[in-house]
Design brief:
Layout (H helix, E strand, L loop, with lengths): L2 E4 L2 E4 L23 H4 L6 H4 L8 H12 L7 H6 L3 H33 L6 H10 L9 H38 L7 H7 L1 H7 L5 H26 L18 H12 L2 H9 L12 H25 L16 H33 L8 H22 L3 H29 L9 H57 L1
Antiparallel strand pairs: 1-2
Helix pairs in contact: 3-12, 3-13, 5-6, 5-11, 5-13, 5-16, 6-7, 6-16, 7-8, 7-14, 7-15, 7-16, 8-15, 10-14, 11-16, 11-17, 16-17
Length: 490
Amino acid sequence: MRLEEKKGSIVLDNFNSTANLATNPGFQSTLSLGSKEVINEKAYNPFEHRKVEHPNSTIGSLVHLLKSSLGSGILAMPAAFKNAGLIVGGIGTFVVGFICTHCVYILVKTSQEVCVDAKKPSMGFAETCGAAFEFGPKPLRPWANFARTFVDYALTCTYLAALCVYIVFIAENFKEVLDVYAPEYKLSVETYCALTLVPLVLICQIRNLKWLVPFSAIANVLLVICFAITMYYIFGDLPNPAEREMVASFTQWPLFMSTVIFAMEGIGVVMPVENEMAKPEQFLGCPGVLNVAMTIVIGLYGVVGFFGYIRFGDDVRGSVTLNLPQDELLAQSAKILMALAILFTYSLQFYVPMEMIWRQIHHKISVKYQNITQISIRTAAVVGSVALAAAFPDLELFISLCGAIFLSSLGLLIPAVVETVHKWDRGLGHFNWILWKNCFIAIMSLVALFAGSYVSITGIIEKFNEPVLEKLLNGTLSRVNETLVSTLEN
């Protein structure tokens, strides 16, 4: 700045009244105020970023969820009531159904929240579990990949175990019919399990989901017809409910719980249904797709179990279709329809574990050998499921064992753990009620896991050791008899 004096005036050149501290090295500021865009940035909304090619409507999603939950398991509900009694069975079905619904709710809710953290539009079951750990407490973050992998393998094992149950369903229903109409060719359940091998191997070579849709549609129609016929016989001649047990032995309750969990739990398909919705915000809430679907499911399962047990009592079998009259064509047709429906459903259920297995190994196999590898893995998986079903062909015990080992863990324990991890740093509610609630669910899951597995395995051992013990006893008695005869002769 230059100052000049002229007659009675002062001239200032390059005068600036603004103090420019930011350019002065002594006054460098480290405070960042941010831009207008950063200040006004909206929170990430995963629903706005979903790009679904063919989204499902709310009604369509409700139908999908009902179809996944209302399967062959509903026909096992009378056998579940046999292990609990009418009173315990009725209350227990509602309680277990409520807890299963809540576990699905907290899994979906957690998935929607971690999608915001990860800035991803949607996640599957395994991805949600991994993300909950990844964005959870720091000590647990290294476990994210393990959680994701564990759930993937658990889902695979669950579907493969359910396939074994399907094979026993098919074998027992075919045996019931053919033993009447072809008595000269009476075969064991194990043989019928083995006879399913060839058609199942062939149908399971279909790799495109598009070509499996017709099989699923046919299976749904057959199941509806079979269900209608079964209801006709259940309500046709009901005895007095007082003739049935109101409260069964406490030691049988784990079988009831495991069977109900197996029949009702469809947690593997929940995330795909929610991810494909046009309006996913309508999946939860009141009424919401989940609440409406599970209300219908719990109601139907309770009605079928309650009245099915009243109708057939302690003679009820693993699938109530097996109790239908053997001398009536309509009843026998229901068994054939049931067997065919499960046969067609098998390939669709098989698609899920195969996708999981192939996703894990396809990058390790040369393109040249991928086709033959697919054929080999699919064939080996079907052969394994048939062999396991033939080894333990007791439908009721097999269903309770699968429910105890797999679905109690996936459907109850994992959602409780995942929500607890996700909420740990975000708040567990007043008096940590979320933590206490999830501890209760985890304890219930572990009781179903260990008690249900123990009772089921004990039942299987007792049942399939009976022929062996009988042969040993008969052999021992015959040898004792021969010894006595020879002694007397001498």
